[in-house]
Amino acid sequence: EAAVTQSPRSKVAVTGGKVTLSCHQTNNHDYMYWYRQDTGHGLRLIHYSYVADSTEKGDIPDGYKASRPSQENFSLILELASLSQTAVYFCASSEGLGASAETLYFGSGTRLTVL
Amino acid sequence: GQQVKQSSPSLTVQEGGISILNCDYENDMFDYFAWYKKYPDNSPTLLISVRSNVDKREDGRLTVFLNKSGKHFSLHITASQPEDTAVYLCAAGLNQGGSAKLIFGEGTKLTVSS
């Protein structure tokens, strides 16, 4: 079965520290995404990628970097974590082609708390 | 501004009743509309989706209605059951070269009471 796995499941970070969230998919999908979830905002797109070694900015990229070293792996990097980045982060993948091109398959989420 | 908006943060329906969840969008170029379901501490999963060339799509107890002129779409759940209790996220997007850059609404928490 297709799967998107995220690590860690939860993390506590200090303000100003570096945080890396990892995502691995076995769907053989070209597209991968990072969303954050905040109360009252639903899911907001941070970065996405449609091919290895390339990333694109989403709607709220400030304060985040992304890395796609391979088709299967997509990381989200917070170089200088801030309190406002406390949220739940979801990784997702999609085929990008065909009848189900837009269907997003989400990971279980990473709960990040910045203190 | 919020491009995709769910005006009702919560909704309570009696078991067996019809749940109606609403979503408004701003960009009339959107050509894909979807509803995702999310249980607490779980990931969102796709329930049903439509493209802009249809006004309605049914799948079992679920029906999506799309009103393009009103920039509005809704999800109807008939014979609502307690296990339908969850957060429902609407999403809309424009397929550009295969990218599913979906924009999500804030979510509506549906509670089905028995």
Characterize this entry briefly:
The complex is a heterodimer of chains A (115) and B (114). Chain A is an all-beta fold.
Note down, in words, how this protein is organized.
The complex is a heterodimer of chains A (115) and B (114). Chain A is an all-beta fold. Helices cover 0% and strands 53% of the residues of chain A. Chain A has no helices and 11 strands. In chain A, a hairpin with a 5-residue loop joins β7 (65-67) and β8 (73-78). The N and C termini of chain A lie far apart (37 Å). The mean pLDDT of chain A is 93. In chain B, strands 2, 4, 5, 9, 10 and 11 form a 6-stranded mixed beta sheet that branches. Chain B has a 5-stranded antiparallel beta sheet with strand order 1-3-8-7-6, with no helix packed on it. Classes of the chains: A mainly beta (115), B mainly beta (114). The interface between A and B is medium-sized, with 27 and 27 residues.
Range of strand content of chain B: over 45%
Overall mean pLDDT of chain A stands at 93
Multimeric state of these chains? heterodimer
Tell the overall outline of chain A: globular
| Rg of chain B | 14 Å
Please write out the topology.
The complex is a heterodimer of chains A (115) and B (114).
Chain A (H helix, E strand, L loop, with lengths): L3 E4 L2 E4 L5 E7 L5 E8 L3 E10 L2 E4 L7 E3 L5 E6 L8 E8 L10 E2 L3 E5 L1
Parallel strand pairs in A: 2-11
Antiparallel strand pairs in A: 1-3, 3-8, 4-5, 4-9, 5-6, 7-8, 9-10, 9-11
Chain B lengths: L3 E2 L4 E5 L4 E7 L6 E7 L6 E7 L4 E4 L2 E6 L4 E6 L8 E8 L9 E2 L3 E6 L1
Keywords:
heterodimer, A: 115 residues, mainly beta, seven-stranded mixed β-sheet, four-stranded antiparallel β-sheet, 0% helix, globular, B: 114 residues, Immunoglobulin-like, six-stranded mixed β-sheet, five-stranded antiparallel β-sheet
